[in-house]
Amino acid sequence: MQPRPALAALLACLSAACIHRGGEDPDARALRIHRDAIVVDTHADTTPRFQDPDFDFTARHDKSEVRIDLPRAREGGLDVQFWSIYVGKVEGDGRAIREALERIDAVWELARRHPAEIVVATDVEGIRRGVAEGKLVSLLGVEGGHMIESKLSVLRDFYRLGVRYMTLTHSFHTEWADSAGMNATALPPSHGGLTPFGVEVVHEMNRLGMMVDVSHVSDGTFWDALRASQAPVIASHSACRAVFDHPRNLSDDMLRALAAKGGVVMINYYSGYTDPQAAPKIADWFVRHGAEFTALREKYAGDLRGMSQAMKAIAAADPVPQGSLEALLDHFDHALRVAGEDHVGLGSDFDGVVSFPVGLDDVSLLPNVTRGLLARGWSEEVVRKVLGENLLRTMREVELAAERIRSEPAAPPSPR
Length: 416
Description:
TIM Barrel; 9-stranded parallel β-sheet; 9 strands; globular
């Protein structure tokens, strides 16, 4: 017997509702969650391109040139980007400061030239407001404490200019903190962690409300920074040592301690740090082209475009090996299990390294992270936290800690 028309219509509606609730197409579900979430990436090195007057961030570029531009950021659902302010190990009093200031200015100028599409935020309230307005929200992170040139006054000036995290070291030691280096063997320590001045830097960052970033630092510096900090600490672009044993990654003890402090580890996408199968091939690629790179750095000193084109030509003739998205997702899985669902986020390192997983080698492909996490059984709530809410919570806790510290009696001024 066929059901009556009214009953047939009701059954059809109930069937559709069941499909919507429990049988939603996985890709559609992933895109829905991704588009509804606030997607935050805490580390990209595209910033020097903003200083090139001929570079148009609002135009679509090939990924061999840059990994992030505005059209692909929109396509990938990116809402909030911390731009890395990075200057290498330069000699000369004030040079690192001057170059960092130029990078900072370039981010602000990008927003000034495109006010309808890009805004710079300096706090969580501003981030949420900018996202609600449909703009790409930009923030600043200084990648390496060497750029303050051992002056707390410079740290304060960076904060006034909008810098909201500082990585205590890059891939080399500073006068006051040890680095892990960048190779498979950690750098021999210089200080054993933080010096007393390094502890003072952490305290001043807490007072200002600037997030302390422990990516790149040595194990000794990591533990000293956690002990010294009165606020949660972040790792802006790091992965898991238990998945791939590399000094740039965090051990399980570190993940647990970072979480206990209220912090967050933002998973780095670089296949050289995340994929045990691809990393040796990437290392071999660098060995093959080491002499070329040395010559190019001398030839194109100060000429970013020329260097970029030369690197592009090398990669076209000899493509850089790539890792797998599954290997990267193993790091997300592990961090979520060890640090917990409130302490994991996204720290791509786009435009800062040469190799990314197949399926995640530019910003337009960010929904693949959401698809991958859902496919591995993580709930919508957890995925939304990873995409951005965890970082926003941690940043807000740092802001509140600064308010509390500033309400206490002032300490004597530092002589430095």
